[in-house]
């Protein structure tokens, strides 16, 4: 069983969800501004952004740039959910990696077809930051997720962007687990970074099939490094 303590994002999102459920914030009401929530919970603005995005993914709030978050429902959507990281076992983690393989592989292929110069600059920047923090799991996970988020942006498909953002939020601890595991093995961080570089190279070359395969290879290797069996196998 892969078990982890709840992240700050989990705890803050859970507390706000409880406040919504108990009527502290009524349906139709706006949540306090991000800086006020950050002060209330003693966390950074980044944690509040992630927590409110998680609430949005659950159908509890609607967020709009410049207008804050409005409460939509006192109870979350019962639709598709990725298992919570704290309760995710090895089989579930293998299943989620299999899902990511197809979703992120497809996104990379679209990114290879549609990427702009601005998209490539964002991808290179995210990868450069990741390269500077290979031995820091805490900061490395942020730049790892930023790189995959930049791939979503390069698809120029809002549905892909929203789905990848949802997966990133739900899988933050899983990515942290993988990067922490990698750091414990000498030389492996550099090897994983080369896998990211191969994804970027294929997108830069407008090689759709190559981009898809580079993502598949990266995630297959990630599963192998965590000693996970193929889902359904």
TrEMBL record:
A Pfam family of the record is: GntR
Entry's SUPFAM superfamilies? GntR ligand-binding domain-like, Winged helix' DNA-binding domain
Q: What is the top-level taxon of the source organism?
A: Bacteria
Q: Which SMART domains match?
A: FCD, HTH_GNTR
Q: Care to name a GO molecular-function term for this sequence?
A: DNA binding
Q: Which InterPro entries match?
A: GntR_C (IPR011711), TF_FadR/GntR_C (IPR008920), Tscrpt_reg_HTH_GntR (IPR000524), WH-like_DNA-bd_sf (IPR036388), WH_DNA-bd_sf (IPR036390)
Sorted alphabetically, the keyword list is: DNA-binding, Transcription, Transcription regulation
Give the Gene3D superfamilies listed for this entry. GntR ligand-binding domain-like (1.20.120.530), Winged helix-like DNA-binding domain superfamily/Winged helix DNA-binding domain (1.10.10.10)
Occurrences of domain HTH gntR-type (ranges): 6-74
PANTHER family (alphabetical): TRANSCRIPTIONAL REGULATOR, GNTR FAMILY (PTHR43537), UXU OPERON TRANSCRIPTIONAL REGULATOR (PTHR43537:SF5)
**What is the official name of this protein in its record?**
GntR family transcriptional regulator
Organism the protein comes from:
Bordetella genomosp. 5
């Amino acid at each position: 069983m892969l078990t982890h303590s709840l992240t700050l994002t989990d705890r803050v999102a859970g507390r706000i969800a409880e406040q919504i459920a108990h009527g502290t914030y009524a349906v139709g009401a706006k949540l306090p501004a991000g800086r006020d929530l950050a002060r209330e919970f003693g966390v950074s603005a980044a944690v509040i952004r992630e927590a409110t995005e998680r609430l949005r993914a659950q159908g509890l709030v609607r967020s709009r740039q410049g207008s804050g978050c409005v409460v939509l429902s006192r109870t979350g959507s019962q639709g598709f959910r990725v298992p919570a990281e704290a309760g995710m076992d090895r089989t579930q983690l293998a299943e989620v990696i299999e899902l990511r393989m197809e979703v992120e592989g497809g996104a990379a292929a679209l990114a290879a077809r549609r990427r702009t110069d601005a998209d490539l600059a964002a991808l290179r920047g995210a990868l450069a930051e990741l390269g500077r923090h290979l031995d820091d799991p805490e900061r490395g996970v942020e730049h790892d997720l930023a790189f995959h988020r930049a791939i979503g942006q390069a698809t120029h498909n809002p549905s892909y962007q929203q789905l990848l953002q949802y997966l990133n939020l739900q899988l933050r601890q899983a990515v942290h687990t993988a990067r922490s595991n990698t750091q414990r093995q000498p030389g492996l961080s550099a090897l994983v970074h080369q896998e990211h570089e191969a994804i970027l190279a294929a997108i830069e070359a407008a090689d759709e099939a190559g981009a898809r395969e580079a993502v598949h290879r990266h995630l297959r290797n990630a599963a192998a490094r965590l000693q996970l069996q193929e889902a359904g196998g």
